[in-house]
Task: structure prediction
Amino acid sequence: MNLRSRRGVALVLVLWIVVILAGVSAGVVRAARTSTGIAVNARANTIARAAAESGIEAIVAAIEDTLTRFEDGDDRKAWLNAIALQSAPDSFQLGEGRFQVAVVDVSARLDVNAATQSNLQTFFSQFTDPAGAAAIANAIRQRIDSGNSSDPGASFRPRSATLIRSLDELSARRLVPEAILSRAAQYLTVDGDGAINARTASDTVLVAASGELRDEPSRLLLISRGWVSGHPLTCEIQAVYAIAGNRLVFSHWRERSL
Result:
């Protein structure tokens, strides 16, 4: 092989090596970008969750501080009954994170888990025909009561295991048609204790109410959303508290990424 041929072969080899190295470099760059993206998202999620949790702690402290300042029972009741209107509309800065909070008077809604089949049927009859309302009420109660078998040979399942944990379950488990739930959801809750606040509940709720009627809320749902400015990820925490005197007693919470 002459010198010119050898040079031609060497050139081809060099070109192939360049192509291979370019492909490897591109793969390394993509992997680095992916790793960086994952790290950025993980960091944003951590900060967002911390901000959301701080929002819950802040609103609990603010509510308890306000309750201790009331000397008159009527003023306290008036403030509690208007608490959903007093939620902070603005967001608050916390380091790199921000949070925004809201308060829901759970007692102003009909509790799906506490309502009887008759109460549920009465409620849903405001959104559909009697047969449809009866079917919905029956489906919900069967779902909730499915763990309460009287058969001593049946496997044990605690009642709490069959409670509806979120309103989304009503649609996801096909207990309530989505079109009906979209209109009824604003009057329902899964976070109550069976008591109804007669001062704040709508006629839609009161017509189907059962159990104790109160003149102030017995439970509050605190909602806090946290995020990092400029990042799309948002963490939402929903925490339920019972009102005991001037204190809020934690019941349970849910969290999700938006």
